[in-house]
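Sharing a chain and its predicted structure for anyone who wants a worked example. Both blocks are below, sequence first, C-alpha cells second.
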Amino acid sequence: MFRILESQAPAKQTATDTINTLSSRLQSATLLEDRRAAIQGLRSFAKLYPASVASGALRPLISGLRNDREDVDTIKVVLETLLNLFSPDENSPEASDEIALWLSDEFTQRQDNITALLDLLDTREFYSRLYSLQLMFQISSARPERTQECILTAPLGIPRLVSALGDAREPVRNEALLLLIALTPASEEFQKLVAFENAFDLVFSLIENEGALTHGSEVVEDCLSLLANLLRLNISNQSYFRETGCVKRVAKLLSDVNQEQDSGEPAPQWTLAHRDKNIWGFLVIIQLFLVRGGINTPANQKAFWNNGVMEQVLSAAFSQRFSVNVTSKALATIADLIRGNEPLQEKFGDVEVFWGVKPVEGAVNGDAAGKEFQRINVMEALLKLTLEPATIQLLDARLAACECIKAFFAHHSGIRVHVLRRAIDGHISGQDEIPNILSVLLTPPELRGNADPYQTWMASVLMFHLLFENAEAKAIAMEVTEGDAESGEEVITCIQTIVGNLVTGIQRGDDERITLGYLMLLCGWLFEEPDAVNDFLGEGSSIQTLLQEIKHRGSPYVLLTGLCTVLLGIVYEFSSKDSPIPRKTLHKLLIEQLGRDQFIDKITRFRESPAVRDFEVLPQTVAGQFEAGLPEIYFDRTFIDFCKDNFGRLTRSIDREPGLEVSVITNGVERGVSRELVDSLKTELEDRTQSIQKLESDLIALQNKLEHEQLDHRKSKESSTMEASKIKQINDSLQKNHEQELSTLKQEQQREMNELMRQHGDQLRAIDNQLRVASNDHERKSQKMREHHEAEVAELQKRIRSLESEFSRAGEQYSGEVAGLKTTIERLMSDANNLKEQHAVEVSNLKGTILQLESNTDQSNKQHSAEVSDLNKKIQSLQAEVDAAKQQHETKLADLTSTNTSLQAELESVRQQHEAQITELTSTNESLQSKLDSGKQEYDAQLADLQSKNDSLQSELDSGKQQHENGVADLKTQNKSLQTELDAIKKQKESEIADLKSTNESLQSQLDEAKKASTQDTQAMHDDYSSKISALEKRAEEAEKKAKKVEDDARKSAQTLEEAQKALEKAKSEAKEKEEARQAAQSELEDLLIVFGDLETKRNEDKKRLKDLGQEVSDEDDDDEDEDEDDD
C-alpha cells in the first residue's frame, strides 16, 4: 500500500528548482501577497545558496525596493534577503568573496538603487532604516568609491545619513555611525559635506550621551574614529571645527576626565581600559590639528592654547592616574602644541604643574607622599621625568617628555641659549635639585653605573639638539671646563671630558646606547666647527682608541663601528694644518691603520643597517619589547636625517687632499683655507716689496723724461692753437663771401622774375583785348543775321496768307473749271511728290550737316581739353623740377653750413682734448710722486699710458691738420659741383621756358582757327538757309497757279519751314556753346599766364640765389629772353 502511494507521489524538487520557481513567481506575480510569499521563500535559501538566489532574483528584489516600499512587511523581507546574500553561511557550497562584489556592482551600476535605499531613511520604520543602513555598509565595504559617488549624486544623500546619527534608537544610530566611518576615510569632498551637515555637534552630543571619555565604550570609540576621518589633513574641516566653537567642547571633555579623576571616586576596573583608549584616541584627534609645517597649525595651536586645551592635557600627563600610553601621548600632544610657535614656547616656560602623587584625604601632616606632591615648573617636571632613572615600562613617557623638551626650544635660538646657560650654571654650582643635562653627560662612568642607559642617551640627545647647527651654542658649551688650574688640577674641556667618558665606556663594555649617545652628540658638535675639532684632537689618544675599536669590533657591532668611523671622518673633514694632530698626520693614520676601502665600507654598512635605513618605519616605542630586554631605540630622528643628508660627503672625506682644508663660514667669518696658498702669497708679497724698491731708483729718470714730454706738448699745443686760428679766419672769410654771392643771386633772380611777370601781363592783356573784339564782332554779326532771318520769315508768312486768300477767291471764281484742271492737278500732284522727295533729301542732308558740325565741335572740344591737360601736366612737371632744384640747392647749402659747423666743432673738440690731456698729464705727474709704493707694474702701466697718450695727441694733431686740409678741398670741390649744377639748372629752365612759349603760341593759333571755323560754319548755314527760302518762294509762286489740292503741299512746306526754324535755333545754341567754350579757354589761358608768372618769379629767385652764391648769370641769356618775348 505504502509502495503504491510512494509511486504515485510527485518527484522530489531540488533547491535549485525551488529557487527558480520562486524567482519566476516573484517576477510574474501581480499581487503583493504573492510577491511577499515568494520573497519569504527565497530568504530561506539565501544563506545556503546565495549565488543561485542572486542569479535568479537579485534584480526583482532590487526593483521591489522601489515598487513595494509602501508595504513595511514586504520591504523588511526584501532587505533581510539581500543582507543574507551579503553574509552567506560559512558552510555554504556557494559561499565566495566574489558574491559580495557581484552584488555591490549590481547595486552601484544604477543610481536609482542607492537612491531607493536612501529613501527608506525618510521613514520612521525601525527595520527599514536599520536594514537599509546595514545594506549600504555592505555595499560600501565592497565598492567604497562607487558607493560614495552614488550617495554624493543622490538627492539629499548625505543629509539623510547624517540625520540618522540623531535617531533615538541605538541600533539605527550605531549603524549610521559605522556607515559614515566607512565612507569618509578618503574623499575630502565627502568629508566636507558631512562636516557641514552639523556632524561635529552631533558627534560631540553622542559622546557626551554615551558617558564621555571616562565611561564611554565602543560607541565613543566609533565617534572618535569618525572625527578622525573628518579632520585628518582636511584644512577646511579643521577651520570649520575651530570656528564653530568645538575647541571649547574638546577642553570640556578633557576637563571632565581630570575632574572625575581628582574626585577620588574609584572607577570600576573594567572601565579603565575603555577610558584610556578613549583618551588616547581623543589626543590623537588633537594631534591631527598640529601637523608639522601645516598651514593651519599656528592658528590651531593658538586656538587650543586660548581655550585651555594645553592646561587640561598637562593635567592628564602629570596626574599619574592614567596608563603610560596615555601619558606619553599627552606629552607628545603638548610637544606638537608648542613646536615652532615662539609666543607659545615662551609662555610654556612659565607654566607650572603638580608633580608627585596626590595625597589621600585624611593623611597625616608631614606624610612623605604629601611632601612629594608639589607644584613645580613644567620644564623641571619634564627634566625630572626624562633624566631620572626609571623602569623600562616608563620609557615611552620619558621619550615623549624628551620630545616635549626639544619642542620647547625648537627653532627658537633665544630659548635654546637660555636652556644651555641654565644647564651650565646648574652644573658649575652643583646645587641643582633637578637632573642636569651636563651633569649627566660629564659624570664619570664609574660613578654612573649602567642600570639606566637611556639616562645618558637622552641627555646626549637633548645636548645634540641644543648644539646642532647653532654656532653660538657651540661656542658657549666649549667654555665649560673641568678642574681648577689654581689648585694644580688639570683643566679639561667639556669635549675632552665627553670623549674620555666615551673611551672609558667602550673599554668597560657599557651598553651600546650610552656609546651611541655620546657619538651622536660629538658628531653634531664637531660638524662644521674647526675649533671643536681642534679641541677634540687635543687628546690624541682618543683617535688611536677609536681606530682600534673599529678594527677589532666584529660584524655584530655595525652601529658602533660605523658611527665611530663617521666621527673620524668629520674630524678629518674639518681639521687643519694647525690642529693638535695636523691634517696630514691624521690622513696618514686613517689610511695606514684603517684604509680607504674599510673607511667607506664601515660608513656604508652603518647607512644600510636596519636601525638607520628603516628608522622612519620602525616604531620608536617600547611596545612590549622590554620583556625580551631593552627596546631597540638607538638614534634620534634629527640625527638620522643628518646622517642621510651628509652620507655622500662623509664617504668622500677620505679622498680629500690633506693640503686642502674645508672652508667653513660661521657667523659670517670664513674659516679653513689652504696653507700652501698662504705661503705662496707671503713669498709673492716679499718679491713685490723688492720690486718696489727697485722702482724707486727708476723714478728720477722717468721724471726727467716727463719734463721733456711736457715741453714738447706745450710746443705742439701752441702750434695747434695757431693753426686753429688760421683755419677759423679762412672759414669766416669763406662764409662771408658765400653770403654775399647768395644775396646778389637773390636780387638778380627777383629782378628777372619781375620783368618776366610784366611781359606776361602785357601779353595777357593783348590777348584779352583781341578776344573781346572778336567776340563783339561775332555777336554783332549774329544779331544782324537773326534780325534779317526774322524779317524774311515774317514776309514769307505774309505772302502765304495773301496766297491763301487769293486761292480761296480763285476757287470761288473757277469752281466751274475744276473738271478741266484735274489733269493739271494730277500732274501737279506728281510734281509735288517729286518736290516732297527732293525736300526730304534736302532735310536729310541738312541733318547730316548739323551732325557733322556737332562732331567737329566735339572733336575740337576734346582736342582743346587734351591740349589744356598736356599744358597742365607740363606746368606741374616744371613746378616739380623747380621745387626739386630749389630743395637740392637748399640741401647743398645746408651741407656747406653743417660742414663749416663740424669743422668748428672738431677744432673746438681738439682744443678741449688738448686741455684735458694737459690736465690729465699734470694730475698723473702729481700722482706719480704719491704712488711710489703701488708697485712696478702700476708704474709701468702709467708710463705706457703717458706714452700712448702722447702718441695719440700727436696723431690727433696730424689727423686734425689732415682733416682741415681735406675739409678745404671738399669745400672747393663742393663749390665747383654747385656751379656746374646751377649752370645745368639754368639751361634746363631756359629750355622749359622756351617750350612754354611755343606751347602758348600753338594754343593762340588753335584758338584763332577755332574762331574762324565757327564764323565760316555760321555763314555757310545762313547761306544755305537763304537759298532754301528762295527756292521755297519760287515753289510757292508756282503753287499759286496750281489747283486747290496744292494747299496740302503748301502746308507741308510750312511744316518744313518750321523744322528749318528749329534747326536755325539749334545752330544758334551751338554757337552759344562755342562761345562758352571760348570763354573757358580764355580762363585756362589766364591760369596759364598766372603759372608763367609764378615760374618767372621762381626763376628770378633762382638767379638771385645763384648770384648770392657767387655764380655769374650772363646778360646774353637775359637779352635772348627779352627778344623772344618781343617776337611773341
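Comments welcome. The chain is about 80% helix and 0% strand.
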